[in-house]
């Protein structure tokens, strides 16, 4: 778990919209920056080359003047002098056979002297006394009438170096920016993620049934706060509507119960006064039906009262095993009458903090269901009650050997008034499991249906330490 | 029995008073907490039937005030609040029984009868006798016509309760509350099965029925028809 967490966090960080968007922006920015660098360095080196060419042109003009005035001897001397000056450009004079007469170039890329005019590209050369060290240069080649060739050029190493320096500086800056961006995402993203985590933790609690829970508002007035506030308003409305609905159904149940109770009382009175056995039987039927309706309303009212949580239940330390065996004892004659075997596993006391009456009601509903609907198709019906203690949890399982419930119907049978087609012939209201579920929830536990193959196991799960209301999966940091 | 009804709902009170009169009791009616307390202090009643929510003075306050001044009259609390804890609260305040509204009249009558009569009997008995059936509470022995009958512990408590209230109607909820000490609603009438089991043990090999079913209400222990 602990090792998983950072990996999981990183994965969820990468899934965030903000992080994805900024990754795209970073790519676009990088592309733009590279283009800029390319443009700047190229323009700058073009400029440097341009300057060099202008210099060469001027020098060529000077040398032409010298040639015109002093002839070949003066030209060679001038070249020789210029070549010796510190920081000089490139000078070379060869005779018609290609032998070097004057200048500071020792070696030249082949073919440079073959063409006259400006060299189209830079070429490699090495200076006099620097054998083996090659530089880049541009030059102009002039051919004299006697077959002599004169080369005037400018070294291009500086331009090259300039380009390299600018490029490496830019690459360094880009790398630093990337690293900074990454750190910024991580910090900003993590902050956003933490807030989102808190929001989703709150919403899972709300989903678990705690409509009183609200999304966190930090008071920063940012988009998260605005979202939370809006959702909270929405929740308040839902809670209001739900409360209204609950009250309406409560009122209906309550208002119908009063006339029903009167109806029952009147039927009783009439039964006492009746003379014929037949009339008494009819009235008995009315009383039984009224009892069924009253029981349904009672269950409905109890579910909504328990679910609403407006009346916090009183929890005391109770022994779940003792209550389970009480209920088993209560139902034992009924099981025997139905030719079923009802057994409750014994053991040391298992203490939980709960309402004794509600827990007994829940177990009684489960056993009642098991005896009614869990009848074995062949052989003797077995209903078992088991109490298990696991880490932090107490489980009470009631299993039967009946036909079970198909998996896809598991969640449906927990709905109010839902009844499986097969069980419609049996008396019942379809509220039994809903009530058990409500009881489980109000104790911070839950109700689970499991396949017992054959049969069904219904598990009531309670936390060992009493918690109010819904289960909190993971508390937000 | 002389019964005081403290209830602000006049219609419900009239209906209740009529049923009590039909059952052979005399009923007085107070419409609020103050009047009720005044009437309870001024006259010796066999039973108070008190609505929990009353104008001027809350039903539970009335009962606990009366108890503080030494009154021992049994009190039956009526309430629209049906939660388990409401019941505990009511009994803590000095009530002797608690019934959730709306109630079945037979249930109320049976409880009123048991509560009122409890006071009349007063002392604690160590043995009960109904016809030729005897139950010794100390030795846990049950005999009918001199022949011992073996009962399970729960059956013994069931019989004990029924015999203690011999001649009175005892409802299924009363049995669940007093014999099992639970107040929840078992979906099926499990109590009936327990009772019929007990009945077969005390009646099968003997003459004459003792444990009778009262239709629509519950059971009654009585010698003869």
TrEMBL record, chain B:
- Its GO CC terms? cytosol; protein-DNA complex
User: Which keywords are on file for this protein?
Assistant: DNA-binding, Phosphoprotein, Transcription, Transcription regulation, Two-component regulatory system
Give residue ranges for domain OmpR/PhoB-type. Answer: 125-223
Q: Which organism is it from?
A: Fulvimarina endophytica
Which GO terms of the molecular function aspect are on file? phosphorelay response regulator activity; transcription cis-regulatory region binding
Q: Name one Pfam family in it.
A: Response_reg
Q: What is this protein called?
A: DNA-binding response regulator
Question: The Response regulatory domain covers which part of the protein?
Answer: 2-116
């Amino acid at each position: 778990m602990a090792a998983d967490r950072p990996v999981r966090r990183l994965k969820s960080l990468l899934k965030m919209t903000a992080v994805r968007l900024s990754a795209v922006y970073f790519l676009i920015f990088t592309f733009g920056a590279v283009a800029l660098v390319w443009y700047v360095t190229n323009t700058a080196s073009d400029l440097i080359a341009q300057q060099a060419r202008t210099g060469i042109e001027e020098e060529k003009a000077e040398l032409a003047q010298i040639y015109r005035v002093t002839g070949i001897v003066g030209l060679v001397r001038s070249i020789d002098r210029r070549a010796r000056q510190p920081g000089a450009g490139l000078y070379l004079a060869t005779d018609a056979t290609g032998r070097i007469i004057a200048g500071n170039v020792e070696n030249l890329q082949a073919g440079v002297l073959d063409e006259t005019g400006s060299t189209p590209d830079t070429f490699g050369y090495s200076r006099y006394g620097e054998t083996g060290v090659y530089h880049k240069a541009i030059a102009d080649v002039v051919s004299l009438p006697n077959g002599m060739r004169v080369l005037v050029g400018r070294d291009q190493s500086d331009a090259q170096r300039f380009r390299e320096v600018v490029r490496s500086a830019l690459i360094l800056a880009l790398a630093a920016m990337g690293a900074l961006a990454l750190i910024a995402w991580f910090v900003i993203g993590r902050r956003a993620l933490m807030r989102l985590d808190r929001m989703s933790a709150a919403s899972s609690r709300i989903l678990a049934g705690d409509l009183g829970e609200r999304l966190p508002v930090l008071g920063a007035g940012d988009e998260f706060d605005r979202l939370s506030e809006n959702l909270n308003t929405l929740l308040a409305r839902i809670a209001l509507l739900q409360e209204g609905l609950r009250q309406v159904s409560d009122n209906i149940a309550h208002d119908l119960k009063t006339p029903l109770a009167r109806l029952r009382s009147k039927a009783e009175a009439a039964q006492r006064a009746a003379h014929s056995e037949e009339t008494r039987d009819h009235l008995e039927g009315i009383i039984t039906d009224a009892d069924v309706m009253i029981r349904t309303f009672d269950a409905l009212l109890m579910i909504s009262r328990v679910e609403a949580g407006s009346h916090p239940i009183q929890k005391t330390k109770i022994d779940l095993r003792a209550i389970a065996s009480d209920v088993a004892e209560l139902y034992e004659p009924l099981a025997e009458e139905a030719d079923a075997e009802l057994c409750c596993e014994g053991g040391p006391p298992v203490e939980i903090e709960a309402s004794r009456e509600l827990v007994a009601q829940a177990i009684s509903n489960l056993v009642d269901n098991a005896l009614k609907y869990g009848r074995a198709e062949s052989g003797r019906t077995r209903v078992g009650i088991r109490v298990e203690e696991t880490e932090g949890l107490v489980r009470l399982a009631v299993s039967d050997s009946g036909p079970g419930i198909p998996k896809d119907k598991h969640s449906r049978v927990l709905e109010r008034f839902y009844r499986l087609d097969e069980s419609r012939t049996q008396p019942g209201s379809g509220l039994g499991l809903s009530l058990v579920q409500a009881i489980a929830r109000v104790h911070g536990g839950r109700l689970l249906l499991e396949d017992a193959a054959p049969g069904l196991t219904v598990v009531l799960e309670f936390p060992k330490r009493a918690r109010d209301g819904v289960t909190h999966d993971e508390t937000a940091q | 029995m002389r019964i005081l009804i403290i209830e602000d709902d006049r219609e419900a009170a009239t209906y209740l008073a009529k049923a009590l009169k039909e059952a052979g009791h005399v009923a007085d009616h107070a419409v609020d907490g103050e009047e009720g307390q005044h009437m309870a202090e001024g006259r010796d009643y066999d039973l108070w039937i008190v609505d929990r929510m009353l104008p001027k003075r809350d039903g539970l306050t009335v009962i606990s005030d009366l108890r503080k001044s030494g009154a021992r009259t049994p009190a039956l609390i009526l309430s629209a609040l049906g939660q388990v804890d409401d019941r505990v609260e009511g009994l803590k305040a000095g009530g002797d029984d608690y019934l959730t509204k709306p109630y079945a009249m037979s249930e109320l009558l049976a409880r009123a009868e048991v509560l009122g009569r409890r006071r009349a009997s007063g002392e604690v008995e160590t043995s009960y006798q109904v016809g030729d059936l005897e139950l010794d509470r100390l030795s846990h022995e049950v005999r009918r016509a001199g022949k011992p009958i073996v009962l399970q512990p729960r059956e013994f408590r069931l019989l004990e309760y029924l015999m203690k209230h011999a001649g009175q109607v005892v409802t299924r909820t009363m049995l669940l509350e007093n014999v099992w000490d639970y107040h929840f609603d078992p979906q099926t009438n499990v109590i009936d099965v327990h009772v019929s089991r007990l009945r077969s043990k005390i009646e099968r090999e003997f003459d004459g029925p003792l444990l009778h079913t009262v239709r629509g209400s519950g059971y009654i222990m009585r010698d003869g028809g």
